[in-house]
Amino acid sequence: MLRYTLMRLGVFAGTFVVVWGLVYLGVAPRGLGASNGLWVVLLSLVISAPVSFVVLRKERDRASEQIVERVDRAKANLEANRRQEDGADDAARAQGQAS
Q1: Is the same domain home to 2 and 47?
Q2: Mean pLDDT, to the nearest integer, of 28-39?
């Protein structure tokens, strides 16, 4: 998961540098007044999202598999705890009825 996040940040950083260069050279339009930095960041976000969607597909699938495994383990642990509590509750009720 950390690897995917770092790769995603790397794609954004690369896109940011390219967009900044294009704006600096005048190929891409500049923002209005002092908003040029914000314009470059927003344009980089818009461009990097589909690029990372295509380029990082395999890494995203690996990360989602890890998340699914963690969720399944958590569900199994919760179910085991629930069964253990039910067993203890049933035993307590059986002792209460036997007395």
Answers
A1: yes
A2: 78
